[in-house]
Amino acid sequence: MKFLHSVFLGFILSAAASLTSCTDDKDVAPVAGQMTLQLEHVAGSAPLTLNGTAPYKTAAGDDFTVTTFRYYISNIKLGKADGTEFVQPESYYLIDEAKADSKIFTIPNVPAGDYTKLTFTIGVDSARNVAGAQTGALAPSDMFWKWDSGYIYTKLEGRSAQSPSGGILFHIGGFKKPNNTIRTVSPALGSSSIRVRNGSTPTVHLKADVLKMFTGPNTVRFATLSSTMGGPDAMLIADNQAAGMFTVAHIQSN
Amino acid sequence: MHCPPKAWSAPVLLSLALLVATGCQPDADVQPAEQVPGATVPSNFPAPVYGTDKNPPTRAAFELGRSLFYDVRLSRTGEVSCGSCHQQFAGFADAGRRLSQGVAGRVGMRNAPALQNLRWKPDFFWDGGPKNIETMPLAPLTNPLEMDETLDNVLLKLNADADYQRRFAQVFGGSSPIDSYQFLRALAQFTASLTSANSRYDHYARREAGAVLSAPELRGLAVFRQKCGGCHAGELFTDESFRNNGLDRSFPLDSGRAQISRRRTDVGRFKVPSLRNVAVTAPYMHDGRFPTLGAVLDHYGQGMVESATVDGLLRQADGKLGIPLTAEERQQLLAFLATLTDETFLQNPQLAKQ
């Protein structure tokens, strides 16, 4: 009974801690470590460079350059082989190719353990799209549609000779059916695991390939589709993103 | 993410406990909160969408929001404030203007709606695009035809003002610069305070002592409930739906709700507006095309035109569009609509520019 009591008490405490995520409560997690996520942006085999002169080529053969590449990652989860999960509270990150410090961040208070699954949302969950004034990564910016409430989950802008206007402007967003572009992915970790220990912070190197936005389930040709602001066309790209834009390059244990 | 300050002091918790214990009895301790307009739910109103728990009203935050609402520095050129196009005496609509004037003489696309009872609105604008009272002001703020400003610039201007610095610090604590969260939360303290619930109709509906409507007004109420209440429903006089009320055969310039939903079935549908204070919010419709309530009733009487999405409630049994009214019903209806005017709201000095 005593054991059961302490288990129950622990449950109550952790439930309370998750309810009051603002409380700085160090007593709850037994042994907590942390994990670093580092994002590398590429166009196929080439590193992504903003405002580059040499164009990248899509799988279908269209040329393009990139001036802006930003996206949200949210609701990061780590899963163990036994099915238990660590769900990061208040898990929202705005990644911007133009800002080096946005491409690496550390997730604190991860219970020690070997994690075999990494899951995250490309975009922002529907609740936060309509939740009013937000702070941090979700503070309103040009990644928020003001006349039709909701975040722009991914923004890729640039130029293409194949585009009728010469420009490409892909704003992926929207949380309502039938144009819900929220996608949750679990890039394969292969045979490796993320080994979190107190005093040992692994780094997961994630690769985001912009070419994959235009190939996969849906082939995007800039001659016919060079601009999206949510809607059915954004769904095409969101499905492509979900199908393999993010891959785990390697996991570095420290 | 933002962590709200833990404001639960022991006296607050104690009075909360007392409040729970004493149920619905009037409590003198509630009085201070009532000093902020719109901090209580009128007894004839439904539960609000944006309850006071979402952004607990305080006197200092309300006054800060009011200053922001009336501050022309929110616009790029310093020409217009929120209050320029949302005037209190007109129910916070733009009195007499079909379309409003933004910075540099630019003219907007739609008629400025009345701002009232915003706590009860699930979404905003004629098309329901903005979904939250706190983020809604970002649209007019950044619209090139309206205030044409950036959020960053507004924050620069606010942070350069010692008075705002002091007042924001007083409300939100700390010494960090004024940020977009504080700005939007403070502004929402004012916009959420705009409760209009003291019209002659309200006094009658709440059966308050001495509250009576005249015989023609009561007959007008009956006509209203029968012929208008399907859309202008409930105590807020809107069901918050989007409907095509037969203004045009096609909607090439402004498709209304379809701009948000992208559905062809929503082309020509616009938000059913509340009719509170309707006598003072002229002109009417999303484009302000009707200058008087008489012109509105003429439209419903014989002016409606067919289109693919025209609303079924506006079709009569014989298939014709419209809401026919006898001359007498028309007079009664207009008499009733005038009872929705809330002079205490329109003249409340607390809601005016200071």
TrEMBL record, chain A:
Superkingdom, taxonomy of origin: Bacteria
Keywords tagged on the record: Signal
Ranges for domain Copper-binding protein MbnP-like: 33-227
A Pfam entry, by short name: MbnP
InterPro entries xref list: MbnP-like_dom
PROSITE patterns: PROKAR_LIPOPROTEIN (PS51257)
Signal sequence, renumbered to the chain: 1-17
Protein name: Copper-binding protein MbnP-like domain-containing protein
Lineage: Bacteria, Pseudomonadati, Bacteroidota, Cytophagia, Cytophagales
